[in-house]
Amino acid sequence: MTERAKHGQEAVQEYDLSKIDGIVCIGGDGIVCEVLNGLMRNVMTKAGKDFNSPDVPIEQPPVRLGIIPAGSGDAVAQWISGARDPVTSTLQIILGASCSIDICSVYDENKLLSFAALLVCYGFLSDIIADTQTSRARFGLHSAVLVSSIRNLIKHRAYDLEIEYTLGKAPESDECKTNDSSKQGITNDVVAPEGATNEYSNVVKQFHGKVFSVDMFLAELVPKAVGSGQNFSDFLQDGQLNLTIMGECSRMKFLKFGKDVAFQSKEIYNKPHIQHMQVTEYKVRGMFETPPAEEVTARGARHTVGTGLALNCDGELVVLDRPYFHVKARKQCLPVYGILSEQFSPKY
Asked: Which of these, 111, 92, 116, 100, lies nearest to 30 by C-alpha position?
């Protein structure tokens, strides 16, 4: 049983993996994130690799990770087992069902911030996580998130960001292409590096503009909206990140986006204030002044709200030293017990 924050990470990071065949955790996405971070750090250290460098290839763990859902969200468990059901997950672990899924690593230059298997969000969703840090113990997680969501929607902050991203494989239809960001007053530059294999892969794009949120999911939440013909599970093994950038928009348009996710609308990304693309890595830099990180954290995690120093990694708060981070896809680096879900239900 874990007794404090990061306890799961600490226990796994120091464990002798040669004595076991797998690791099974019971809980929600938070404990999965802790175990993942401990596991990857353990393996990289034993292999003599610097896990703080984004240029160093990730070592695949010699053991599989199993997840028995018992949390408030359990998205990762549902993704790899096909159901948010402890019995289904347990049976798949007992039967030895196995596959490998993508993860990502998050850095500040040459400093690892976190590994993630679900999402990395900056802006609206990271401010909510920071805002609930002090109220969740008093009001419960669901009530704290609801209150925080309403409070941050009312404040409706937009951050001045410079974002650089490397496009992945070429899309199979026009529906995959990013929208014309000039409608948002965003400037773009495209750099085609030597060795680019087609119109899209390895092409680096940059833009600067006011952004409401930058959200990345390891899986595509609305597969039919990108017109690829892929199943939900295919996105968990393709070595790419599904990045959505929401520019300044009204509160009603933001709420409409949430509704479109829930109802799996094919037109979800066909909006002038939304850009959506598959990338292999991206970097986000805030073009604004922030208070010293030490001063913010000394006052408590909740005070990172609105500073641009809050980052949401798999539902866990990461406090940045400055408004900058770099996310990189790691293809099929995590072996898990599971069969992968072909469809996604946002009502988990």
From this structure: 116
| CA torsion, ordered 120, 114, 150, 243, to nearest 10 deg | -10
Contact between 73 and 125 under an 8 Å Cβ cutoff? The reply is no
Could you read off the pLDDT of 6-16 as tens digits, one per residue? 899 999 999 99
Question: Is 328's pLDDT higher than 90?
Answer: yes
Query: Looking up tokens 């539902």, which residue turns up?
Result: 315
**H helices, E strands: number in the chain:** 9, 13
Around Cβ 244, how many Cβ atoms within 10 Å?
20
**Closest among 18, 49, 29, 287 to 8, alpha carbons compared:** 29
Contact call for residues 228 and 171 (beta carbons, < 8 A): yes
| 147 sits in which H/E element | helix 141-155
| C-beta separation of 100 from 334 below 8 A | yes
Phi-psi group of 155: left, alpha or beta (phi > 0 → left; psi -120 to 50 → alpha; rest → beta): alpha
Determine which of 65-79, 114-128, 216-230, 273-287 has the lowest per-residue pLDDT on average: 216-230
> Residue 343's closest CA among 282, 265, 264, 259?
264
Closest CA to 161 of 308, 310, 47, 265: 308
Contacts 24+ apart (CB under 8 A), 89-93: 89/337, 89/338, 92/66, 92/337, 92/338, 92/339, 93/22, 93/24, 93/66, 93/68, 93/337
Residue 335's contacts (CB-CB under 8 Å, 6 or more residues apart) are: 60, 61, 63, 64, 65, 98, 99, 100
Categorise residue 314: left if φ over 0, alpha if ψ from -120 to 50, beta otherwise: left
| Range of weakest confidence among 21-25, 71-75, 203-207 | 71-75
Q: Give the global pTM.
A: 0.87
